[in-house]
Amino acid sequence: MPLDTSTYHLAHLRLDGRRWNELRRLHAQISTQASADGSSYLEMGNTKVLCSVTGPAEVKGQGRREGAERDNAVVHVEVNVAGFSGVERKRRGRGDRRLNEIQNIIASAMSTTLFLHLYSHSTITLHIHVLSLDGSLLAACLNVSTLALIDAGIPMKDYISACTSGLSLPATSQLTAGNDTQDPLLDLNSMEEQELPSLTVATLGGGDRVVVLNMESRVLMGKLDGMLAAGVDGCRRVRGLLDGVVRDRGAKVVAEDGAG
Prior knowledge:
Elements: E1 26-30, E2 38-44, E3 47-58, H1 62-66, E4 74-81, H2 97-113, E5 122-132, H3 137-151, E6 160-167, H4 172-176, E7 184-186, H5 190-195, E8 198-204, E9 210-215, H6 221-259
Parallel strand pairs: 4-5
Antiparallel strand pairs: 1-2, 2-3, 3-5, 6-7, 6-8, 8-9
C-alpha cells in the first residue's frame, strides 16, 4: 500500500518536535538476561520494556493431561506494568482488562509466525515487564517479543514489527473555513494517544501483510486508509531497525567465537 505524501502538510511539527511521519528514537538489545532462554530490551521513545522467553517447555501436571491431544505448542504471554512506569503511580493487577487484551493479542500474533508444530505438547511463555510507559504500549510489546523469540532460537517465518498511527486535530483556521483536514501521525506518544484517535498496526515481514490491527476509538472510514498506510510504512521502518539489532548481535557473536 503506497504512502502518498503529496496531500499532507509537512511543515507542521508535533509537541515533541517531530514531523508527522517521524518515528521516535528506537533502541534495542537482545540477550540481556543470561538465565532466560531468550531475552530482549527495547525503547520506543520513553516507552521501555523488557521481555524474557521460557521454553519451549514440556507441559506438566493438569496442563499436560488437558493438552495430551495437542499437536502444536501454545504461546502464553504475561505482561506486568511497573507501578512507577507512568505519571501516576498505579499498580495493575492480573485481572486488568487492558493487560489481558494485550496478552491475548500478542499470543495470537506470535502464533501466526512461529513454527509451533515443531514443539508439540509444549508451551512457550513470554514475560514482558513495562518499566516506562509513554504511548504505543502494544506496539512496543510486540517488537520486544519478536526480538526475544529470535534470541531464544525459536523458528519463525519472519519478523513481526509494530507501530502506531493517528490523526491530527484540525487547525482552528481550518475549522473556521469549514475544512476539517486531518493529517495522519506516526508513532504516537502518551499525550497524543489520550487526545487523538489511534491505530496499532503490526505486519509480518517487510510486506503489507497485516497480522494485528487494533483501534479503540471511532474514526470516519475515509480517514482509516491514511492511518493504515502510515502505520504499515512505519512497520517497514521498524522492521529494518529490528533487523539491524539482530545482525549486529550476530556479528558480535561470530567475532567472539572467532577470537576464542
